[in-house]
Amino acid sequence: MYVCGQKKLLSEIDQLIENNSFPRFSIIVGNVGTGKKVISDYIARKLGANFVPSGIKAEEVRDVIDNSYTVIEKTLYMFADSDYMSVTSKNSLLKVTEEPPNNSYFIMTVRDLSNVLETIISRAMIFHIEPYSESDLDDFISHKNYSIDSNKRKILKQICLCPQDITVASDMDIKAVYDVADKFIQFIGSANLANELKVSTMLNLKSSDSDTGDKIDPIIFMRCIMLCCNGMMLDNISAEDAKIFHSIISETSRSLIALQSKGCNKQEVVDNWIVSTHMAITGGEF
Asked: d(Cα 17, Cα 14) in Å, to the nearest integer?
């Protein structure tokens, strides 16, 4: 089974399984698209267990727990996106952390460990997804046989943080996206705010936008904004320009976090980002 990067983590997992000491309950921590499900599947395969992804609603969690005490074959249950698991669901899991079923293993995947009950954390083994290196992403591109020239590959490795980012951006004309981001930076704060807000029409902000295939993923776009700004900060620029680029980077960084929140209103996040950036640069002038 192919797994991108994560050599240290995989080595730790392999050693635990080889020593027959892999925990019955564990938590995998990592951001969106970093491979938490892939690692869970890898663990199941190494354990020789059936891999059963499960929902996180209270009734789904209870059904899994009831079933886990009756299965004959070794089974690994994965609760994905457990940051959004209700307190009722989390409390239900306490039973299997106290009295693990004979043939069952459980994995919660989360973005932020602080969203997990302390009592569960204290009874679980925690695995953290490692950051991906440029070499890891190069390897992923090669594994997927993506047709990407050297210029596009260079930009992708600078704006993508994980394999899922590569997958999302691989079909884009990333140089064109970079050029749009660069142009946006040039006029943000100096153009009319109404015109600046029109940039959002180029982005994939609604489910219906995905059907057209010609709109830009907002996260990839904002990453290009960050790349452009960082590049300009390395040039010999004035203190005033440096302050402008710093403002853009700060506002963009906050908005990137918001865009990766489950159920966020992307249109609202992007519009607020444009307005906030404009205001930060102009000192509050429209």
From this structure: 5
Helix 266-282 with 239-259: angle, nearest 10 deg: 160
State the pTM of this model.
0.83
How far, CA to CA in Å, does 123 sit from each of 52, 58, 76, 126?
21, 20, 17, 10
pLDDT tens per residue, range 158-203: 888 899 888 888 878 888 888 888 888 888 767 677 888 888 888 8
Q: How far apart are CA 92 and CA 114, in angstroms?
A: 18
Residue appearing with tokens 């491979």: 35
Distance CA 150, CA 171 (A): 15
CA distance 76 to 25: 10
